[in-house]
Amino acid sequence: DTGVSQNPRHKITKRGQNVTFRCDPISEHNRLYWYRQTLGQGPEFLTYFQNEAQLEKSRLLSDRFSAERPKGSFSTLEIQRTEQGDSAMYLCASSSGLAGANTQYFGPGTRLTVL
Amino acid sequence: GENVEQHPSTLSVQEGDSAVIKCTYSDSASNYFPWYKQELGKRPQLIIDIRSNVGEKKDQRIAVTLNKTAKHFSLHITETQPEDSAVYFCAASIPMFSGGYNKLIFGAGTRLAVHP
Q1: In DSSP terms, which residues pair with B63 in a beta bridge?
Q2: SS3 readout for B49-106
Q3: Which chain B residues touch A56 with a CB distance below 8 Å?
Q4: For a tag on chain A, would you pick the N or C end, based on fewer CB atoms within 10 A?
């Protein structure tokens, strides 16, 4: 499968615990995005990487959230001290860095449930 | 501000009928407008997109129209089939800091049900 992959697909955790999600983009894509999707809503932008540089962060991203893309390939999203309001689907997307190539391809998401 | 409104939130049609979903956006700098289809429990899949230099684009039974002056764009599905049943999201690109790349602002989605 050459598409965007995410792990784990599901995560159940207790409030206050830390969780980490991984995203592997399409191999030649240098742009990577994280979104959050709650039930009945469209995806909401969280953060953007171009290669290893995190160039944009949404105001939705509180200081409990941190994302990395250390070698410009896979990315991780960590949530510290999880809260019930963090329960959502976390989607990763990637796109090519070619001029005019805006298409974002999404992964299957990680569904987080905070008890 | 950054906002995309999508209507209707639910749409029920008979197989073979047409379906139209409409979106409006707020940022005049938006220049790329994709539409995604999301089936239950699956990832959003791009079905069609349009850039601001054209007013209409068609791909088989699916077409998208764009009115940049009014900041409206619409998805048209003709000859609907039961397998078209899904949630459809429109999105508009928003240029990010220093330009050259965009984030997507999504509408809230339209749940389309096509009845045999």
Answers
A1: B58, B76
A2: EEECCCCEEEECCEEEEEECCCCEEEEEECCCCHHHCEEEEEEEEEECCCCCCEEEEE
A3: 96-97, 103
A4: N
Which of A107, A112, A97 lies closest to A51 in space, CA to CA?
A: A97
Strand pairing partners for B104? B93
Residues 6+ apart with CB under 8 A from B98: none
CB contact under 8 A, B89 and A42: yes
Give A24-48 pLDDT, tens digit per residue.
Answer: 999 989 899 999 999 889 999 999 9
The closest CB to that of B46, out of A42, A103, A109, belongs to A103
Q: pLDDT by residue (tens digit) across A3-30?
A: 999 999 999 999 999 999 999 999 989 8
The pLDDT of residue A99 is above 90: no
**CA A75, CA B43: separation in Å to the nearest integer?**
18
What stretch of H or E contains B45?
A: strand B45-51
Q: Name the one residue in this structure whose structure tokens are 């994302």.
A: A67
Q: How far apart are CA A55 and CA B103, in angstroms?
A: 11
Exposed/middle/buried for A28, CB within 10 Å: 0-12, 13-18, 19+? exposed
HSE of B6, CA atoms in CB hemisphere, 13 A: 27
Mean confidence (pLDDT) of chain A: 92
> In 3D, which of B2, B27, B6 has the Cα closest to residue B112?
B6
